């Protein structure tokens, strides 16, 4: 039997076992619980896309990588094997930041020869003391002394020279732990780019000046004769060179070479030769090699000093020549 038995007189709810309506119709039942949808997996794809963009930017270099650096806040972003931001982000784009980052890599060079003595500059490119400078700074030298930014003195020997490009490689004796400069890429330079020059004009080591790239691909002619190599004395008019068919700062002689140079209005004076021309990321983009000095500057104080016509060997020329210099070339 399926019926329920009830004692006599006991009330039986006719709705027993059935769902009852709420007592107060103004109070609706709580809403049915609906679980939240599972999170979509798009976020992982977005992160992967960002990573891919960063990799592409690093491969492209230049302004794109600069933008990625701004997003990530990294102090140093290597955009390629030859272009690195070595200036801390807090001092990015400032002359002070460039000077602080690069000055430890710039040296003063004193060279003695039968023709006299000269003072120039150089750029450390390896921690054990390889230094790039101008050929005319060390040409014919019997003794070379190098002073680093912190005042340490070293003897140096010539490893290789290339008079056709006015470049030389020297090596310090018993040196280690030096701060090597970063060689940049001069192919992307534009007229108007800001630059910093560091060197030892007139023996004033560690001098910092700034300016812009004034022109590209200037045909500058310089002497290759050894007897023209010692022209950096304080009384001299600076390294002789020729431009546009005219000779400046003395006679270039009969044996000359011509190279494509960067022109800058950053102040250069005798002694800056072999020093660094640097972009605002702290990369070496040129080796300072020649400057114009007005006729009679040595005897007239009103004409003395830089007039904003300086020239530098592009760093890509330097990099292309390094293997030859390291092999002991004496061209």
UniProtKB/TrEMBL annotation:
Residues 229-238 have a biased composition (Low complexity). InterPro entries: Chloro_Bact_Ser_Proteases, Peptidase_S1_PA, Peptidase_S1_PA_chymotrypsin, Peptidase_S1C. Keywords: Hydrolase, Membrane, Protease, Transmembrane, Transmembrane helix. Residues 25-38 have a biased composition (Pro residues). Pfam families: Trypsin_2 (PF13365). The chain crosses the membrane at residues 47-68. The keyword Membrane applies. Belongs to the peptidase S1C family. This is Trypsin-like peptidase domain-containing protein.
